[in-house]
Design brief:
heterotrimer, A: six-stranded mixed sheet, four-stranded antiparallel sheet, B: mainly alpha, 0% strand
């Protein structure tokens, strides 16, 4: 069990700064995800926490003690790697038991523990096989088993599901979450998949260019993104952000973009007016309940719901709405569009920061 | 012409060419092996009398008779080639691992170095080498030959092994670190077991090179340390008319390396042919 | 990296020393630098008729060997890359001449070329191609090409295996795409295989040229440069001058000329290999 703190952590290779001023506090037993596109510094942050990469500035603490100079072994962390990094010449049992063997556990003790772990992970029947004889999902579970067996202080996951197909990824998500609930070990999970992050985490740290852009619960980062970067990164379909301005039309706030204008529900507009960006998530776009008429451009039925992409005549912007069931619209149809008041997010054009109701930047 | 006929003709041509290729490559070998088990009389008759009842091992008995020079040569070759192979994989793999994992400045120039060692005409190297070796008293010794062979085998071994070590994912070593392995344990328990096939390949390669080398051997190892090829060359000069014994000696001197090459063909083909092509 | 420094020293030292030696009169009897003679060794060797002959032979030998070996190897590799040629046995066949000791190879051909009892004369006469036995290695008209044949036979396998590995690296999808685009077998070879093999072929040409210039074992065992210097090439000439005539200074001069030749050749290849056009296709 451990509490982890990263204080002003930086990693640079010569002049290239990979991470800078990373500050994180991960509570005991918490599941935290580092989310971001490739090259944002999330894996480096994880490797520094593991003790695999050295920190060039700042401090990493575990349970209050500075661990900058400790090896992964001394930090007592376990890690699941992106391509699993299973030892190709060892059987499944040897892979899982390797760390105990290095710690000079007795043979029968190793066997007993390996058997226990294998049973939980449904690997009992493949213990004598080599990694290359396993399916992707089985390899993944061996990697998990290798981490679980020693009951470490911290679990670190480096994009562990990126090589699995969609169905398997869902199953492994359930397994990892169940494992975390069962063992309650502090976990840091790195991924570029926002859905994975939302579904697994207690909190999510979204990284951008080596810095942390926002930290918060899944609810926070989804509903109250601090910037257009976070807003676009989280949620599917991607949030539509229009580049227009808030205007005052006879006491009522409207948002105009190109030749189109939308009415802003009372109380939803921030106190500042003028050129700001407006973002709306698909579930907050209402269709056919009055409002501004827009043309249907593309319709994507997905079974349980349908994505309807709409735009103005000049195609200066488009919006994707979500309609339950298999809605039958035809490209070219004109539909009335309006917005849920709680779903409107305004962003400062220059900085990309979200504008709070009082006009301050988030 | 229908597609099926055209395909059949194409296949026929391929088979014919393959037969031609096999005959061209194998006929000289078959002929030399056949000649080595025929008595002098059968070899010198026209046409050569290759009846099975003529087959005899007399030629082999002849070359392995008392004070057999060939036997000494084979023994010297075995010592020199084995030690060259062992030392080159021990030193070469350590150097290659360092080059592959630490960013050594100029480490990428190893290919140039390999080309350079190939480029040196032996004759350029041999003169200064001969002078140095005779000053330190290493001419005509096993050690002298081994040092010379290492100087051109090592770069190749390093090059091939470096390519191999680079193909091992770094994550594997990181996983070992997380599992609590020291650097030495990581190398011994994780990297080395994976590296055994290419180590074998490079070892076999070094062995074959050292076994077959002639130019340096004939100049610096004329008497005590003379290797099988040197003895064979002497043989072919001295016993010009004992054709059977001459070719039998050639067969004997070739068997170890040919067998090694065939047994370890998979390693050699993968390690070298593909490594070289990737550059 | 100490190992690299040591190796560089091992390589640079002999070259430097060999160049120094070539400016002295030095003999095998004492290896002392007896007398500084400046470029005398070089002027002497350039005026030497045998040297000029050796240069001609060397160039002919290298060009012919490289062309035949590389072309034949592409053919062999193509053949082994078909379904019919895929079984491992054909690659094993190739390994035999490759692994064979070069001296054993020389002995093998010595027996085949034997004027009285050689199988070559027998076969050629049986098929009526020649009327009487030819002294292949003793006739200045034939000797060089006889050696060349033996050398080519042994050289093809390794180069063919390199080519084969290169061909295996060509993504299969390219061939399917070419077939869909309606390319004939020849067009596929010309527009897919050859361009994709460019780097491999270049490497093979470099290696084979270097090896051709270094040929020694065959000459030593089969002809010793004869008859009447018909098979004398630079490498062998340098050996003969240094170790048989004992004139190390003069021999070193020949060796250095050969080295410069190889060096320029290798530099040229490297430039070619690293040219932007090549990098694009590679």
């Amino acid at each position: 069990m451990a509490e982890i703190e990263l204080i002003g952590v930086e990693k640079r290779y010569g002049d290239v700064v990979v991470c800078s001023d990373v500050n994180l506090h991960i509570g005991d037993g918490e599941f935290l995800t580092l989310l971001g596109p490739s090259g944002c510094g999330k894996t480096t942050t994880l490797n520094m926490t593991a003790g695999l990469d050295e920190v060039t500035a700042g401090e990493i603490r575990m349970n209050g003690q500075v661990v900058n100079d400790l090896t992964p072994f001394e930090r007592d962390v376990a890690m699941v790697f992106q391509n699993y990094a299973l030892y190709p010449h060892m059987t499944v049992a040897d892979n899982i038991g390797f760390t105990l063997k290095l710690r000079k556990f007795k043979k029968d003790e190793i066997k007993r523990r390996v058997d226990d772990v294998a049973e939980v992970l449904e690997l009992s029947h493949v213990l004598d096989r080599l990694p290359r004889e396993l399916s992707g999902g089985q390899q993944q579970r061996v990697a998990l088993g290798r981490a679980v067996i020693r009951q470490p202080q911290v679990f670190l996951f480096d994009e562990p599901f990126s090589n699995l197909d969609a169905a398997l990824r869902m199953r492994m998500r359930v397994e990892v979450k169940a494992m975390h609930q069962r063992l309650g070990i502090t976990s840091i999970f790195v991924t570029h998949d926002q859905e994975e992050a939302l579904s697994l985490s207690d909190r999510i740290a979204i990284m951008n260019g080596g810095k942390i852009e926002q930290i918060g619960t899944p609810e926070d980062v989804y509903s109250r993104p601090c910037s257009t970067y976070v807003a676009r990164f989280i949620g599917s379909p991607q949030m539509d952000i229009m580049v227009g301005s808030i205007e005052d039309r006879g006491g009522r706030a409207t948002y105009s973009v190109g030749s189109t204008s939308f009415e802003i529900p009372a109380g939803a507009a921030p106190s500042t007016h003028g050129a700001v960006d407006l973002g709306v998530r698909s579930e907050h776009i209402r269709i056919g309940q009055g409002g501004t008429p827009l043309k249907v451009i593309v319709v994507q039925p997905l079974g349980s719901e349908t994505y309807v992409t709409l735009g103005d005549a000049d195609l200066t912007f488009n919006l994707t709405a979500r309609v339950p069931g298999m809605a039958r619209y035809t490209p070219g149809d004109l539909l009335d569009v309006s917005f849920d008041p709680e779903g409107l997010l305004f962003f400062d054009r220059e900085s990309g920061r979200r504008i709070e109701a009082d006009g301050a930047l988030a | 012409m229908s597609r099926a006929t055209r395909r059949r003709i194409g296949k026929g041509i391929q088979i014919a060419l393959l037969v031609l290729f096999s005959v061209w490559t194998l006929a000289p070998i078959v002929w030399i092996v056949l000649s080595s088990v025929l008595p002098q009389a059968a070899l010198t008759s026209t046409p050569p009398d290759i009846a099975i009842e003529n087959f005899t091992l007399d030629n082999y008995r002849g070359i392995f008779g008392e004070d057999s020079e060939l036997l000494i040569g084979l023994k010297n070759s075995a010592i020199v080639a084995t030690l060259t192979a062992l030392v080159s994989i021990a030193l070469g793999s350590a150097a290659a691992y360092a080059l592959a994992r630490l960013s050594v400045p100029g480490g990428n120039r190893i290919l140039l170095l390999v080309l350079a060692t190939q480029m040196f005409p032996g004759i350029v190297v041999i003169i200064p080498l001969f002078i140095v070796l005779s000053r330190v008293g290493l001419t005509d010794t096993h050690l002298g030959l081994i040092i010379v062979y290492l100087s051109f085998v090592l770069p190749i071994v390093i090059w091939v092994m470096k390519g191999f070590f680079e193909s091992i994912p770094v994550a594997l070593e990181r996983a070992a670190a997380v599992d609590g392995a020291s650097t030495l344990q990581t190398f011994r328990l994780v990297v080395l077991p994976i590296a055994i096939p290419p180590l074998f390949a490079t070892g076999v390669f070094a062995f074959i090179e050292a076994w077959n080398e002639f130019f340096f051997a004939v100049i610096i190892a004329q008497t005590n340390a003379k290797t099988a090829p040197v003895v064979l060359a002497e043989f072919s000069g001295q016993y010009v008319s004992l054709f059977g014994q001459m070719v039998a000696a050639a067969v004997v001197a070739s068997i170890p390396v040919v067998v090694l090459a065939i047994v370890f063909r998979r390693f050699i083909l993968r390690g070298f042919a593909e490594g070289a092509v990737k550059g | 990296m100490p190992a690299l420094i040591v190796m560089a020293a091992v390589l640079v030292f002999p070259i430097a020393m060999s160049i120094v030696v070539s400016f002295f009169e030095t003999t095998t009897s004492d290896f002392g630098f007896n007398e500084f003679v400046g470029i005398d060794n070089y002027t002497k060797i350039f005026a030497d008729e045998i040297f000029q002959t050796a240069v001609r032979h060397t160039i002919y030998w290298m060009v012919a060997e490289v062309i035949v070996v590389v072309a034949a190897s592409v053919g062999v590799a193509l053949l082994l890359n078909t379904n019919v040629g895929r079984p491992a046995i054909f690659r094993i066949i190739l390994l035999v001449p490759w692994a064979l000791s070069p001296v054993a190879n020389a002995v093998l051909w010595k027996w085949i070329y034997n004027a009285n009892y050689g199988i070559l004369n027998y076969l050629l006469m049986a098929f009526g191609i020649v009327d009487e036995p030819q002294i292949w290695l003793g006739d200045e008209r034939f000797a060089l090409n006889a050696l060349l044949l033996a050398e080519i036979w042994k050289s093809i396998p390794f180069i063919a295996l390199l080519m084969l590995a290169g061909m295996r690296n060509v993504p299969n999808i390219l061939y399917r795409a070419a077939r869909l685009d309606g390319a004939s077998t020849w067009q596929t070879f010309r527009h897919i295989t050859l361009p994709q093999l460019r780097t491999t072929i270049l490497i093979c040409v470099v290696l084979q040229s270097i090896w051709a210039l270094k040929s020694f074992d065959l000459i030593y065992v089969l002809t010793r440069g004869g008859p009447i210097d018909a098979t004398t090439m630079l490498n062998y000439l340098s050996y003969r001058i240094s170790f048989q005539f004992g004139d190390i200074g003069l021999g070193a001069a020949v060796a250095d000329i050969l080295f410069v030749f190889m060096f320029v050749l290798a530099l040229g290849y490297l430039r070619f290999l690293q040219s932007p056009e090549n990098r694009r296709t590679a």
